[in-house]
Amino acid sequence: MSVRLSKIKRPGGVYWFDLRHVAEDEDGTWLFGPVGSAWEAPHDRGALPVPVMVLLRSDRPWAAWWVDDPADRRLEIDVCLPPEATSTGWRYVDLELDPVWHASDGRVEIEDRDEYEESRDAGWMSADDAELARVTAEECAEVLRTGAQPWLSRGWRMLGQQR
């Protein structure tokens, strides 16, 4: 089943991805994006060059993206306001901070701090949203460092099963 995942960047607009619903379990909703899946941003559009698996749930302020890029296989976590189901799929408001685990060396970093600071300073996110982003990014980075959650490896397995 085709699902539209919309990622809202303030003030940048809506970025969307056409993905496939593959599962629901205790960890949330799993969406798969095969190579060639359509995406669009306010000033660009294209097709996914690598396969991805996305995990989201409406009671968590993040969405996880397993990115099977041979040049940089990684797990990215989009810190966001809790995702919302829509009539066509899902949407969430991006809060800019992105903890990322790189498979090549196990390195974990939090990306886009500059975008976060700009969004916070310009008033595009409230003080409460900024605090949620900061705390969630640190918590998610720690989960990526410790590898303590079963959904971390489940995402790679599910991505491999879709190929």
Features:
single chain, 163 residues, alpha+beta, FomD barrel-like fold, 12-stranded mixed β-sheet, 12 strands, 42% strand
Following the backbone from N to C, one meets helices and strands in this order, namely EEEEEEEEEEEEHHH
Distance between the termini: 16 Å
CATH structural fold name? FomD barrel-like fold
Main β-sheet description: 12 strands, mixed
Task: Write down the domain tally.
Answer: 1
Question: What would you note in describing this structure?
Answer:
By secondary structure, the chain is an alpha+beta fold. It contains three helices and twelve strands; from the N terminus they run E-E-E-E-E-E-E-E-E-E-E-E-H-H-H. The chain has helices at residues 113-121, 127-146, 150-162, and strands at residues 2-9, 13-25, 28-33, 38-41, 44-47, 52-56, 62-67, 74-79, 84-85, 89-93, 98-102, 108-111. Strands 1, 2, 3, 4, 5, 6, 7, 8, 9, 10, 11 and 12 form a twelve-stranded mixed β-sheet that branches. A hairpin with a 6-residue loop joins strand 7 and strand 8.
